Amino acid sequence: MAYTLEEVYRELRDPRVRFNYAKCVYLVTQDDGRTSYSEALTSVQDLGLGTGLCATFSLVFNDRLNGSQRFSQDKADQVVARMAESSPNHMDATFRLDSWGGTILTVNLTRPRPLDDSKLYLGWGPAIGNAPGSALYCICFKEMGLLG
Length: 148
Description:
mainly beta, nine-stranded antiparallel β-sheet
């Protein structure tokens, strides 16, 4: 099941529900064709970017090989993300690229088809790292649960 950012916040903050995380999927495709992907557990906290729905991702890329295996986990970049609703159906996502000296990127993402019950957030922003051009960012939330 997929969730909007508003639904995640509502569930995580409701003491009757007792969930303390939501799984987030983060995907970026850059102008040069490189694609990166990660999943992480998010929670309401401050990881150095301000309080919000935060997570630390191990971002893997299609151009980083381990033998013939793409998206090699042993060549992942560490990215800290903070996601906050900027208006209904919109979120601002701030990413700190820890593997790239702490570079910070901010991207505004939108649910392009909220009336069709789409729960996928899309937005254009800068390419990751030293790459020129721009990138398409995609974020979605799935499954919530209780850890600990």
